[in-house]
Amino acid sequence: MPEHATALLRPPRHRVDPRARRWWTLQALLTLSGPMLLLALTMAVLSLLFFPGALPWLGPLLLVVLVVPAVSYLVVMPRWRYAVHAWELGERAVYAAGGWFWQKRRIAPLSRVQTVDTVRGPLQRRYGLATVTVTTASTAGDIKIAGLSDADAEELSRRIGEAAQDVPGDAA
Amino acid sequence: MSAPLDPETPGIQAGEAPGTQVGADHASQGAGAPAGGAAEWRRLDPRTLLVHCGWLAAPLGSLALTALATGGRIPAKAWFTLAALAASFAVVTTIGLIRWARTEFRIAPGSRGDGSEGGAAGSGRGSAALTFDVRSGLLTRRLRSVPLHRIRTVDLTASPLHRLLGVTVLRAGTAGSGDGSKELSLEALAVPEAERLRAELLAYADAEAATNDPVVARINWRWLRYAPLTFWVIGGVFVVAGSAYRVLDGIGIEPWKLGFVQQAFTELGAGALWLTVPAVLLAVLALGSVGAVVLYVENWWNYCLEWTDARTLRVRRGLFTTRAVTLERARLRGVLLREPLLLRAGGGAMVRAVAGGLGNREENRKRSGLLPPAPRTEALRVAGGTLRAPFPGSGAPVALAPHPRVALRRRRVRGLLFAVLPGTAVLAGLGAAFTPVLLHCAWIYAVLTTALVWWLARDAYRNLGHGVDGPYLVARSGTFSRDTLALQREAIAAWTFTTSPFTRRAGLVALTAAVAAGEDGYRIPDLAATEAAGFAAAAAPGILEEFLVHPGEPGQHLPEQRSS
Q1: Nearest CB to B494: which of A5, A11, A112?
Q2: Are A54 and A91 contained in the same domain?
Q3: Among partner residues A3, A91, A141, which is closest to B514 by beta-carbon distance?
Q4: Contact B515 A3 (CB under 8 A)
């Protein structure tokens, strides 16, 4: 097909809910940044109490190894993710983009869709968000759209379900 | 060859001279050669005679060493050895000469009953069929004749000595000739001559029949030579040592407390390290080879790959644990040709099925093996027999599109970052802190690994390729294991484009084809970002067309214009 020779894949049309940024920030705080900052704080306090002489070299070390990475992850990751994450339901396929440093764009035809799962974790519920997972027969073909608003997720899963019924296919 | 030592030398040279004009004069002097028209009897290469003298190298070498050690004076005992050598040389050369002079082959139209067995085999096939005839023997003349459309494999094998002399052994096998006794072998032909003959033999081989044989492959114990070229040459050591330890442990012996084991260790430490370390390495390699061969035999004993009916492919194998895997044709989505670095250097390959329903990832790895390490031509044939269509690249090489040149740079940088830099830094750091010897180690390490990385990166880059061949998507990548994948295009269930900041900057993207079979996802690394989407759309139409933009055309959505 020569007309595809210079074709580019455009990003999906719809962004995820803006509240997803706060969800990702909270997630980062709980899983990575929080513990790192806590560790840095504990070590700094302990050093201050018992080995004040160590502070001149320990302080910068903690700053470089723990504090700066933790804070930059906390600040950068959610924004970056929000810029990347997107989804679109086309006429014949579902299309989703995800990730931040390593980015992934996946397209699965509706004829191959097997199930549509909507998951709301405890943190997501707080912000009224949901994750929609569209599974196919291949684990490398599963599409996950994280950070949708509840309403969008419901609408999307309903529409994918309908579309998958309309598009003929054996899902294998 | 230190041939001048021997009186027989002129004989060889006389035999070698006509080698260049092997054609007409020899063909007519073969005893009772039928007037074959175009089908003249052809001779083996005269250099074969030199190959037969290969065994001389060891005794002559040791003699030369003795002479060198004694300062040129050869002791009386050595003269006897020399005489014995000369006598056996004469015998071997005579036998070789007779064999060479009496072995002839040709490709002839049908067989006209000029040989006892050949006539019977050939007459039933109709006169139009070409046959490959080989006759040999001094007193008992033997003519073997195989119809060309029956020939399935033509295998060229050359030992290092053969390679030195530029000759190779040709073996032609039919569908059921796994055990080797039914094979026709010619030892030896000049390499170009052998290549030509192989092309001639396979040109008439019925490709249709080859892909429709119910029996795709059987074990051929000559493939055992590929066993030490697998990972098991190292892993085999652990397997052997582990099972020995377990047996000893089972009968209540702790090997580390045995006297002779401890003694061996202390002696090893006390000995000259430059001698003991290579010796131990050699022993490990030898032990590993034995382990690899044992595992090969255990795994692939009685191996047979066959279509039990039109829709079922079955693999049977195993000595103690027998395994039988049945693959349904509808779930067979493709074939993977694996060539690990060592095996590839030895001209071998393995074949795996890309099939659904073989269990989880690990079970799939165990069950999907279709062919053990075997010659590459055999692997290509088996892959074709599994697909029931020629494997892409087995006939006319399919032109795989190369990847952008920046992929080569990425491979080099990766090698430098992960192999050269850490080792050099550690060695240099230790060297700066403790001893300057390590500093020298550091730069030597850096130079050697850089050269190695450069070479591996080039190989990895050259192996990259992708394309579409009929109903198959073909992708090749890898250097430690060069994997060539032929995947049914209609089996592709989804596409994934993966990028990192580095690949985005280089304008590359990794494309993953999802299938409900085999490893689930098959990755094509480092495609040009501008071509990847077009390739994906062409390879599996109907998935992503609606999300494509064509930059040249007006009225398209630019990436920035998206509603939220």
Answers
A1: A112
A2: no
A3: A141
A4: no
Instruction: Tell me if chain B has a CB within 8 Å of the CB of A107.
Output: yes
Identify whether residues A61 and A118 lie together within a single domain. no
- CATH code assigned at A139: 2.30.29.30
Last residue of a domain, one of A34, A49, A82: A82
- Are both A90 and A157 inside the same structural domain? yes
Range of the domain at A126: 85-166
DSSP letter string, B130-167: EEEEEEE-SSS-EEEEEEGGGEEEEEEE--HHHHHHTE
Same domain, residue pair A89 and A53: no
Q: Note whether B498 contacts A8, CB cutoff 8 Å.
A: no
Within-domain flag for A171: no
A19 in contact with chain B, both atoms CB, cutoff 8 A:
no
Rounded distance between C-alpha atoms, residue B91 and residue A156, angstroms: 87
Residues A115 and A90 placed together within one structural domain of the fold: yes
Which residue's entry shows tokens 């579409």?
B468
Residue A10 lies inside a defined structural domain of this protein = no
Render pLDDT for B437-447 as a digit per residue (tens, 0 to 9): 888 889 999 99
CA distance B311 to chain A (A): 18
CA–CA min distance A137, chain B (Å): 5
Q: List the beta bridge partners of residue B142.
A: B136
Residue whose entry in the numeric block shows the structure tokens 């959505």: B557
Q: Across the interface, do B514 and A14 touch by the CB < 8 Å criterion?
A: no
With CB atoms and an 8 Å threshold, state whether A95 touches B531.
Answer: no
For residue A1, being part of any structural domain is answered with no
Of A30, A60, A82, the position where a domain reaches its end is A82
Number of structural domains in chain A: 2
Do A37 and A49 have their domain in common?
yes
CA-wise closest residue to B518 among B545, B493, B548: B493
> Measured between CA atoms, how close is A106 to chain B, in angstroms?
4
Please compute the mean of the pLDDT values over residues A7-35 and round it to a whole number: 93
Rounded to an integer, the average pLDDT of B314-324 is: 86
Does A84 lie at the interface with B, CB-CB under 8 angstroms? no
For residues B167 and B158, give the distance between their C-alpha atoms in angstroms, rounded to a whole number: 7
What ipTM does the predicted assembly reach? 0.91
| Contacts B552 to A, Cβ<8 Å | 6
- Does a structural domain hold residue A11? no
Say yes or no for a CB contact (<8 Å) between A140 and B543. Answer: no
Of B531, B532, B544, the CB nearest to A107: B544
A113 and A158 within one domain: yes
- Torsion of Cα atoms, B142 then B147 then B151 then B157, to 10°: 30
* A75 and A104, same domain (yes or no): no
If pLDDT is split at 50, 70 and 90, which confidence band does B120 have?
very low
Nearest CB to A4: which of B356, B534, B556?
B534
Among B131-140, B330-339, B471-480, the least confident range: B131-140
